[in-house]
User: What shape does this take?
Amino acid sequence: MEIKMHPRGMAFLIFCLGSGFVSVVYLNRGDWTFLWMYREKSQEIPISKNQTEHWLTNWFNCRSQDTADKEPNTLQLDDWFHASARPEVSTLTDWSAPIVWDSTFKRSVLEDYYSKRKVTVGLTVFAIGKYLDKYLKTFLISADNFFMVGHKVIFYVMVDDLSKMPLIELGPLRTFKVFQVNKESRWQDISMMRMKTIGDLIESHIKYEVDFMFCMDVDQVFQSDYGLETLDESVAQLQAWFYKADKEKFTYERDPQSTAYIPSMQGDYYYHAAVFGGTPLRVFNLTRECYEGIIKDKERNTEAIWHDESHLNKYYFINKPTKLLSPEYCWDYKIGKNSDIKNVKLSWMPKEYGEVRSNS
Assistant: This one.
């Protein structure tokens, strides 16, 4: 055991756990707040893809059965969702998945159902390089105030410099787990390699700890309650600029050489990679498929137009999400006034790419 001082003057203890993992424990106003640091390995997990999928599927089925034993009643769509409440917008997909807008859900029904199940929700976020300095503190403070209020939440925070992790006093039922990851030389690779890191993290930690999870970009801020209405097996976010666009306007990958290729005039919606979620198993499948597609593209010396987002759109094109979130759940104020947007849950921060994507 080793005792050190955080650069901001707070004492912390370090316990080496072996296999590249380190437990970092902060003493914060008399309370112990547990943070974990993860040193990412370059080698692959020494089990096959089929073994991993079989293992995760069995784990998920057992966990689902345990939950069902506690609460046998299944929540039906009609119990909590009112598709006709917002006639001016699309609220159901062709495959009958709900598109969640403000006023389309019964919060009291959802609270009653999930409170009995005592669900835990995870939220992963990457803050690498200048994104850490500029956005992370604001993101975490706003998430503490608005994300799954009243329910247990674990924030999984990936940084490249542990000493810059902001010290934030979280509300009840909220904890941090912080993981140190390598910084890639190109911002495109940072964006794409997060798919591998999230998949690895699900296998090592998340699958044991949460019932649902979300993965979000750090350059966003929560503005109002982001709650239980967003939970489902596979959750996709409609991209704010394209939610009413014709599919020929979607910026899918159109190069047939890429594994992210979607032919012209095909597709359902354009999804934003800034927000995606679901059960750990479904998110694992998404991240694994996207990462494998990215690696295959590298082997072919090609790169999808919008990197991991292109691969995410290809995944959802083949594997339809079970719930879609309206642009109210990831809004860009640069679009201007829009009568469809009644209650912004999460919004984009100003994009200052010239500053945050610079390696200098």
User: Anything to note?
Assistant: Residues 281 and 314 are 18 Å apart (CA to CA). The chain has two domains: 1-39, 77-356. The chain is about 30% helix and 20% strand. Helices lie at 49-70, 77-80, 107-117, 130-146, 187-209, 280-299, 308-318, 353-356.
